[in-house]
Design a protein that fits this description.
Elements lengths: L8 E5 L4 H12 L4 E5 L2 H5 L7 E5 L5 H15 L2 E6 L14 H29 L2 E6 L12 H21 L4 E8 L13 H13 L6 H12 L9 E4 L7
Parallel strand pairs: 1-2, 1-4, 2-3, 4-5, 5-6, 6-7
Helix pairs in contact: 1-7, 3-4, 4-5
Length: 245
């Protein structure tokens, strides 16, 4: 039975930390019921101060896990009107020495995971002629940098997939927004096994005072989403003022 709520359901992947956690609280505080997905469901369950929520253990590489989570949430809160593809990893290392497993994980989570998220909701949004998909990419999708070869490629793929999907579905009244942050105050690089690359990246973080506050990004996405459906903010590239590129 659908719970009565004045606002539609918002689905967020990678909601256990960083931007995803901030998104969970930002939208919940604004009165939206939220579907929170992550591999670490116990962390999502610890958000006891968010009342209107469904939590689900989801690996974005597995589309059926996303679909089952959506089915569960929609049975209580109605259709997903906003889907935020936030889950991602950024293991650093030179192309030559980075383990193949890290390369494949980056592509599977950062690219295939986004495709799985989009494919889980887009057809229904097209049928309803209403909905918004926000894909969290990165400045790395525009500019390459040392020790980021695979991550650069993954985020560039997200950029182009989002752009073309948006063009194809504009006639269907479905919005796509691409968010491309620079360095953010998160633990995104924690999966790195190359300690030299991680040290160099840590120095870059220090040079920009830790990077962007993820709460700012979450609040910006809320404002973008709450614009009328006929208004589409297609792309936002943002960094700390001190970040050069």
């Amino acid at each position: 039975m659908t719970t009565k709520t004045n606002k539609p359901l918002v689905a967020i992947t990678g909601a256990s930390a960083g931007i995803g956690k901030c998104l969970a609280y930002t939208f919940a505080d604004a009165g939206y019921p939220v579907l929170l997905m992550a591999r670490r469901k116990e962390i999502l369950d610890s958000y006891t101060d968010i009342e209107e929520k469904i939590t689900a253990k989801v690996d974005v590489r597995e589309i059926e896990e996303i679909k089952q989570a959506i089915k569960l949430a929609e049975s209580k809160y109605g259709k997903v009107d906003l889907f935020i593809n936030n889950a991602g990893i950024m293991p650093l290392g030179s192309y030559l020495t980075q383990p193949l497993s890290e390369k494949y994980d980056t592509i599977d989570i950062d690219v295939k995971g986004v495709i799985n998220g989009m494919d889980s909701v887009l057809s229904d949004m097209v049928e309803r002629k209403h909905g918004t998909i926000v894909n969290i990419s990165s400045i790395a999708g525009r500019y390459t940098s040392i020790d980021h070869a695979i991550y650069n490629g993954a985020k560039a793929a997200v950029n182009y997939i989002t752009e073309e999907a948006r063009k194809e579905n504009a006639k269907n009244n479905v919005r796509f927004t691409l968010i491309e942050p620079g360095i953010v105050q998160t633990d995104l690089a924690k999966h790195s096994t190359d300690m030299d690359a991680l040290k160099e990246y840590s120095e870059k973080i220090e040079a920009v005072n830790g990077g962007l506050d993820p709460n700012f990004i979450a609040e910006m996405i809320l404002k973008i989403y709450e614009l009328p459906q006929e208004v589409s903010i297609k792309e936002v590239l943002l960094t700390s003022t001190k970040q050069v590129g």
